[in-house]
Specification:
Helix content of chain A: over 70%
Radius of gyration of chain A: 24 Å
Number of domains of chain A: 1
Low-confidence stretches of chain A: none
Number of strands of chain A: 0
Distance between the termini of chain B: 34 Å
Shape of chain A: rod-shaped
Distance between the termini of chain A: 75 Å
Number of domains of chain B: 1
Helix content of chain B: over 70%
Largest interface: A-B, 28 and 36 residues
Shape of chain B: globular
Low-confidence stretches of chain B: none
Structural class of chain A: mainly alpha
Structural class of chain B: mainly alpha
Oligomer: heterodimer
Mean pLDDT of chain A: 90
Number of helices of chain B: 9
Number of helices of chain A: 2
Mean pLDDT of chain B: 92
Number of strands of chain B: 0
């Protein structure tokens, strides 16, 4: 890319290191996405659990 | 003073306050990461020795820094919880562990993927790599103790103690490249004299580090809110809050 025209295929090739660079970034992205999804799921679980407990107590009364 | 701390560190108060902070942290993390990646991939020149492969640095080094930063936050929070019985501190410690483990995992995997083309091997048992792997196991140990002990106070005590003892590993990770002969290169940024890294590489590196830190702040609040709800599940404020959802 030394001043010559920019090419996407050259960019993705990463000077021959495409495998290592893109796997690094891909796995990092996957871990970050997982870190966003997991607490959302967890929150739903906690709320469900509390709601069930409230219902159970109301039935007992 | 004590009453003031009690009020602001109550999980209920925290739950309300943190909701407003999360979008700011999350959004700024995203913007800064995008700008950092743009500079890292399109402005920073190839390395004169490592060619394009060095671009892994923009996630590897921030992740490694964060793996240690989050651990220190976790251990300090656990100590505060242990000594002053501040429940929010235990919540923050518990919320930090999985995020810290994620950063450690990223640092190890990207390091491995960088090591293969540069050193010719995915893994060596040298001081830097081994101490970072021990860090991952410390996080796992903390999470296992949290998950396996039924009584929350006992769980906080046991896991907190592990976190505090494990702090000795942090300076070992940092100085491992000086104390032992290792394949891992020495520090290029966190030195007292001028960093030996090109400014066009340094700026995206620092931006990515900032983005990772803001991401941690956002996610630790998200997780701590869940943790606060779960721990106070039998208290009135949670009951009232959930009934409105």
């Amino acid at each position: 890319m030394n001043g010559s025209e920019f090419s996407w295929s050259e960019f993705f090739a990463m000077g021959g290191y495409a495998f290592f660079v893109w796997w690094s970034y891909g796995l990092t992205l996957a871990v970050i996405v997982l870190n966003i999804v997991m607490p959302v799921v967890q929150r739903k679980k906690v709320i469900k659990r509390v709601k069930r407990a409230i219902r159970r107590e109301q039935l007992q009364e | 003073m004590w009453a003031w701390i009690q009020k602001f560190s109550s999980p209920k108060y925290f739950y309300g306050m943190s909701a407003k902070l999360i979008p700011w942290f999350a959004f700024s993390a995203l913007l800064i990461a995008l700008y950092g990646l743009y500079l890292g991939f399109f402005v920073a020149p190839p390395d004169y020795q490592q060619g394009e492969s060095y671009r892994i640095i923009f996630i590897h080094v921030p992740a490694a820094w964060m793996s240690m930063f989050v651990y220190v936050v976790m251990a300090v929070s656990a100590a505060i919880g242990l000594i002053w019985q501040i429940r929010l501190a235990d919540v923050i410690a518990a919320a930090s562990a999985p995020i810290g483990a994620s950063f450690t995992f990223i640092a190890l995997v990207t390091g491995s993927l960088w090591g293969k083309p540069m050193w010719g091997t995915y893994w060596v048992w040298d001081a830097r790599l081994t101490s970072e792997l021990i860090l991952l196991f410390l996080y796992f140990g903390y999470m296992a103790l949290q998950a396996s002990i039924e009584d929350q106070r006992m769980a906080d005590k046991a896991s907190g103690l592990l976190a505090i003892v494990g702090v000795v590993n942090i300076p070992i990770i940092h100085y491992s490249v000086e104390w032992w002969n290792t394949l891992h290169q020495g520090a290029t940024v966190t030195k007292f004299d001028k960093p030996s890294i090109h400014i066009d590489m340094l700026i995206p590196l620092l931006l990515m580090a900032l983005a990772f830190k803001l991401f941690y702040f956002a996610m630790v609040l998200v997780r701590a809110r869940n943790e606060a709800l779960y721990r106070d599940r039998n208290r009135r404020w949670v009951r009232e809050l959930v009934e409105k959802l």
